[in-house]
Amino acid sequence: MRKASLVVTAGLIGLAISCGHQQPPAAAPEAPPLRVRTLVIESSEWPGIYEAVGTVRARTAAALSSKIMGYVQEVKVQAGDAVRAGQLLILLDSRDLDAARRQAEAALNEAKSAIAEVDNAVAAARAQLELAQVTFRRMKELHEKRSVSEQEFDEAAAKVRMAEANHQMALSRRRQLEEKIGQATEALRSAEIMRGYAEIRAPFDGVIIEKMIDPGALAAPGAPLLTIERTGAFRLEARLEESMLAQVRAGRAVEVELEALGRTIQARVSEVVPAVDPASRAFLVKIDLPNLPELRSGLFGRARFRTAPRRVLAIPAEAIVRRGQVQSVFVVEDGRARTRLISTGEQRDSEVEVLTGLAPSETLIVPVPAGLADGRKVEVER
Predict the structure, then answer these.
(1) Residue 255: predicted pLDDT
(2) 326-333 and 70-75 strand pairing
(3) What's the CATH architecture for 34-46+312-380?
(4) H or E element: which one contains 152?
(5) What pLDDT shows up at residue 381?
(6) Which residue of 73, 99, 184, 269 has the fewest C-beta atoms within 10 A of its own C-beta?
(7) Which SS3 state, helix, strand or coil, does residue 183 take?
């Protein structure tokens, strides 16, 4: 049994020795060089651009509200309707106001109807005064000739004084009536103005962008009922960092990109609000936009301001390989493709700014051919 074990052991040792002397498999032949096109990286000068985001708003907008309290009888517009200046938009219940107006009108008519009576009283008092004065003059002449008694003369003088008092009283009543007519006229005008408050009209040509009331609701003074924007007058309102405060002035040209419209337009700064928000450290800039039929308030926009030029390392966008958040490029080193991880900044047209990962004078592979991998032999096309 011991002898058999020695034989097996010897056999295994011999097998292991024989295996150790086997030849290794032949290495796979290397793929032929891949023909690529290259570009020597050089720094270039880009015009400086400061970009700020903003919102399109109407230059003129108004929130319409009622000056009086009343129930809404009729709403004649909907959101999105175009309206003309002076057009009736909302009608409030005006029965109380109509009654007040009729009452003021009746008071005015009553006062005017008394004018004839008062004028007749003034005329009668004037006639009595004139008669008394004539009689007094005659009595005076007779008194001087001692043809009438003192009592008769005194009675004539008293009648003159009484006639003068009656005349003044009639004139006073006439002035009182004129004041009453004036008060009634003002009351009627006030009632008409109050009646006008029951009709809410458009202050200018525009578009209704929001309706906050329906028939039957109670309109309270100051509570917004409709919002209207003037048509054809929009601007972009953007907030800029405080470092730009010294560089932006009214009248400066600026490029505005409106993504929803898919277009870029030239505009000008119309107003700079110099107060800086302490929370965001930014200030407000208002940019007038040209009259475009597609413009709507609330659209997103980008404002680009030209600043001092700067030197950048820019490469074609087609040279970048993106895998999720990782960006890389291929460069040529000693006849082979080498992968470089990069970080990028701003993109302009077909070029992308490289912040880290590349240096000037390196040879960049662009475009990246299919099948290119790190370490692959490459042959540069001449």
Answers:
(1) 93
(2) unpaired
(3) Beta Barrel (2.40)
(4) helix 150-196
(5) 84
(6) 99
(7) helix
Q: Which amino acid is at 342?
A: I
Q: What is the pLDDT of residue 226?
A: 94
Q: What is the mean pLDDT of each run of 10 residues along the chain (382 residues)?
A: 40 45 58 88 87 92 92 93 93 90 90 88 90 87 82 86 91 90 91 91 91 92 92 90 90 92 91 91 93 87 90 91 93 92 89 92 91 89 78
Work out whether strand 206-211 and strand 224-230 pair parallel, antiparallel, or are unpaired.
antiparallel
E strand segments, 43-142: 43-58, 61-65, 70-75, 82-83, 88-92
Q: Within a 13 Å sphere around the CA of 44, how many CA atoms are in the beta-carbon half?
A: 13
Residue 292 Cα to chain centre, angstroms? 16
Q: Between 115-144 and 95-113, two packed helices, what is the crossing angle to 10 degrees?
A: 20
61's CB contacts (< 8 A; 6+ apart) are: 209, 227, 228, 229, 230, 297
Same fold? 34-46+312-380, 66-89+200-229: no
CATH for 66-89+200-229 is 2.40.50.100
In sequence order, which residues have a C-beta less than 8 Å from that of residue 54 and are 6 or more positions away?
236, 237, 238, 239, 285, 287, 300, 301, 302, 303
Q: What is the pLDDT of residue 28?
A: 59
Place of tokens 């047209």: 349
The residue type of 124 is A
CATH of the domain spanning 51-59+230-307: 2.40.30.170
